[in-house]
Amino acid sequence: MSAQTNTSGWSGIFRPLDWLLLAVPVSFALRYVSAWRNDTLLFIITGLAIIPLAGWMGRATEHLSARAGQGLGSLLNATFGNAAELIIALMALSKGLTGVVKASLTGSIIGNILLVLGASMLAGGMRFNRQTFNQTAARISATSLSLAAIGLIIPTVFHLASDRQPGGWTPQAEQSLSLAIAVVLFITYIFWLIFSLFTHKKLFTGAEAAGHAEEKDAAWSVTKAVTILLMATTLVAFMSEFLVGSVEAAREQLGLTEVFVGVIIVAVIGNAAEHSTAVMMALKNKTDLSLGIAIGSSLQIALFVAPVLVFASYLFGQPMTLEFTLPEIAAVALSVWIVTEISGDGECNWLEGVQLLSVYVILAILFFFLPEPAHVQSASDSLAPAAGSAFNPASETNSTAPIPAR
Amino acid sequence: MSAQTNTSGWSGIFRPLDWLLLAVPVSFALRYVSAWRNDTLLFIITGLAIIPLAGWMGRATEHLSARAGQGLGSLLNATFGNAAELIIALMALSKGLTGVVKASLTGSIIGNILLVLGASMLAGGMRFNRQTFNQTAARISATSLSLAAIGLIIPTVFHLASDRQPGGWTPQAEQSLSLAIAVVLFITYIFWLIFSLFTHKKLFTGAEAAGHAEEKDAAWSVTKAVTILLMATTLVAFMSEFLVGSVEAAREQLGLTEVFVGVIIVAVIGNAAEHSTAVMMALKNKTDLSLGIAIGSSLQIALFVAPVLVFASYLFGQPMTLEFTLPEIAAVALSVWIVTEISGDGECNWLEGVQLLSVYVILAILFFFLPEPAHVQSASDSLAPAAGSAFNPASETNSTAPIPAR
Amino acid sequence: MSAQTNTSGWSGIFRPLDWLLLAVPVSFALRYVSAWRNDTLLFIITGLAIIPLAGWMGRATEHLSARAGQGLGSLLNATFGNAAELIIALMALSKGLTGVVKASLTGSIIGNILLVLGASMLAGGMRFNRQTFNQTAARISATSLSLAAIGLIIPTVFHLASDRQPGGWTPQAEQSLSLAIAVVLFITYIFWLIFSLFTHKKLFTGAEAAGHAEEKDAAWSVTKAVTILLMATTLVAFMSEFLVGSVEAAREQLGLTEVFVGVIIVAVIGNAAEHSTAVMMALKNKTDLSLGIAIGSSLQIALFVAPVLVFASYLFGQPMTLEFTLPEIAAVALSVWIVTEISGDGECNWLEGVQLLSVYVILAILFFFLPEPAHVQSASDSLAPAAGSAFNPASETNSTAPIPAR
């Protein structure tokens, strides 16, 4: 998003990617005009439509933050930075698609710290021989990610271990354990906010200041910012509903598995706006900012969005656990491992960007080849979901919806 | 333990926690007076009694060390720092309770590097924005911990892998493998002592000097130190016998599993004295010392106490292996991973303390929800212990004691 | 290999270990004279013969590199540094012994970063209290190793996860996945070469310059270097054929498993020449060089030799996957973990050398106790190889050769 000259009104605030906004009316048409109803096309069009809308939500949030002042503003940014992904996930959760939800959580986490960060380091590294960033800030962000990874590993460890006991594994125990861990992660996120926004703000200030300096638009009035935010949010909500409603038919026709769609496709869509910002910042040698965007976004997903989804699932009456599949756990753990190594010394180069992207490609290859989980395959046969096993958690609900819950 | 003015005799040497010593006679009463026999109460009272006794053992050891001179003294400290835990474990081992032994080994390791270190970093971090410590010393301690974690992981890898072979897994192979690994760990500990007490003493001297400076009591005479040490050790031995003898009944009534009691409760009791010292040192910005206490104690458990227990088990005629359950291995590996990250840059802050405590809470949640292993459940039915499986090692002995061996 | 005075001709270029060259004619005799045919002896003698031959290949390559100039020369070194191991592995692959191939890949990786590097750090640390090396170069090499470890872990994760799906696991999917990952690793190796030989050459120059300075022989003419290289390569090819042909009978008589022979013995033989060079460099305080030899060799095995072997297996008509057994994966992952920790701060001491050697000994203990995999045991009974399982991949080919494929 290049700097723009200071203009008033609405005409000067459109960005390069915004032509994709044309996809919005097209998606409404595809959805409501029966003659044109085509799930695969609807899936693709709504996916494209979400990209600029997420960008607008982000910009509106930033303008509101600038108005709200440093502390509250950063808090706004930190909480609603992933609002688009949260909306998509809540929509899927309300339909009981916990499998897609977890897959997209995984995808957002690894997408941010591998794809976004890797592309940033590679882009910046092509221009600068060596880029540096605040080592302490990077290290403690990476440690928070490790903590999150631990929180996402333990529920499956519990399932594996208790499967072998006569008392066995019960869904209720798994849900209670997950809820307790979600609370711990959420509390840790609050402490993280206190640390990064208040007590040790200086470690991250480089990022903050640079971020605000990039906004060369005329500052939006509160009315303008709130209006745009509400409009964008509403449209994203509609797009999410269309997207989630068409995912089943679309992926079958495209020959992709539910897991691949969740981990790779949904995550890339949701992160596209941040992706371009992070790469731009790296090209301007503002590495603290690109690292902050990428790792900060992953942190928010793992320590804020995931717990919130667990809490929300209880409100929806269909408790979701934090039990992920083995490939998802391996993906998150290995990604966090690599990122911790790369960010630990406060400097980066183009090869480290290549390494992050290589890991992402390897994980994408894994998710591409994984066959469809049983409970999804049997959906069309209206069979009961397959019995729960450690790596293929069955329905966590009593729903008999045509789309099986996981 | 605040500094006390220099007084002679015995009157000035009591510390705040010492009122718990009243629990000692109470425990004797509960144990031997039939009318008052109450296992749950006995378990709690002896647990409380061990706390100040362990503190006295530590202080006596430190005074003897001061008398013995730098090298031999540090060696004394390094070897007998965990004498209380060693005694409790030997007591449990003699009764064939290898499950409790391994659980308490796990609990001591993770308790020191997560609970003690986390509380220290948090306490110190509330007072100081940033605390530093010798990076080289911290890193090589963390690497030794990783080596120990590897030594505790491999026996279970062996079991998993050989289960799938026709030749299969045999208890004898597991015991030989464990004994060989125990020897390697023990030898590594000796090299660690040579490194930290002789060839690279300077890296750790900060800790040593500070430790001795804290002792503002009048130096105890050798007679006084040895007497107190012997008395405290004898009492700890009795307390251990009561504790271990009442653990079964007590935990059933408290509704806790054997694993939870071993990993969380026994470990917290045994480490309480060190815990308060480490927190005090952090509050005085002597971070090298608190790190040295916490990580050094974990190292001693993993590289000295664990091998010694393996050797001792052969003397007792009931060889114990180093095969831990999956949750125990996950707990140790993940703890060592987090500590390595946090201590790698030579500085810490309050959030890193929170992160360590969060991991501890998550692991405690895991051990809280884990159901009772089969061999313990079936004890009261006098059934044969469940057949050995990789994550639930059955009896390693031929003992037909009412308390099943693991 | 001590520096030698500048002499012309051939007489001055023999090195201490070269008396082992006597093993070459002996091995020919043992192989072709029926009366003397003894597989165990042949195995041992050819093993000893390879050691000096690999050294000669290395020296010839270095002289050619010096002639070819900095860039192309380093490229030569980087590609053919492990030519001996590549030849042995190709020989085994052509006979369908994919189990031995993978075991020796594992052994080369862990042998270089644990045994060679550990011995170097220990030797250097006995002489120097503290040795330093370029931290950035060491860290990015370690990260490349982590990437390689991830590439070797994912195929087994795939197998474990897809086993539980109704669609199940198919050898074809595993082969396609492995081929795709091999391509990614190979491309990453090319980028690594661009980084270490061109764009960021300076980080590694210490190693380069020092390496060339050590060659105090008169520079060999191109004719001489090429002649020696061809002769040594031919002899290594013959030795490999004898070695691989006799491994079955020899190990049975020596009572060793195929895995132990592959992981420990074959790897030690192949790395012996580099081993002595690395230790020598450490004793001369040229730590960048010893680290470069050890870690660089592991990198080459994991990111170049392994993918090349996968490609070659397709040419041989017997596709090999990158699916390793659990112990092999654990060994590689844990080794890379420890090396990443130790090399991350740019300095080392004797204890870190001891730690690396300890991990190697623990892993050797593991591989020593592991029982023979099913498919090897049943070979003599001419039974069909055991059905494929995640940790014991069965035959990947349709070959009915007497030596079972894995």
TrEMBL record, chains A, B, C:
Q: Which UniProt keywords apply?
A: Antiport, Calcium, Calcium transport, Ion transport, Membrane, Transmembrane, Transmembrane helix, Transport
State whether keyword Transport applies. yes
Superkingdom of source: Bacteria
Q: Name one GO biological process term.
A: intracellular calcium ion homeostasis
Q: How does it sit in the membrane?
A: Multi-pass membrane protein
**Gene Ontology MF annotations:** calcium:proton antiporter activity
- Read off the InterPro entries from this record: CaH_exchang (IPR004713), CAX-like (IPR004798), NaCa_Exmemb (IPR004837), NCX_ion-bd_dom_sf (IPR044880)
The residue ranges of the Sodium/calcium exchanger membrane region domain are 40-197, 225-368
Residues spanning the membrane: 12-34, 40-60, 72-93, 105-125, 137-158, 178-198, 218-239, 259-283, 290-316, 353-370
Please state where this protein is localized: Endomembrane system
Would the keyword Transmembrane be found if you checked this record's keyword annotation? Answer: yes
Q: Which GO terms describe its cellular component?
A: endomembrane system; membrane
Q: Which family does it belong to?
A: Belongs to the Ca(2+):cation antiporter (CaCA) (TC 2.A.19) family.
Q: What does this protein do?
A: Ca(+)/H(+) antiporter that extrudes calcium in exchange for external protons.
By what name is this protein known?
Ca(2+)/H(+) antiporter
What is the protein's species of origin? Rariglobus hedericola
Q: Source gene?
A: cax
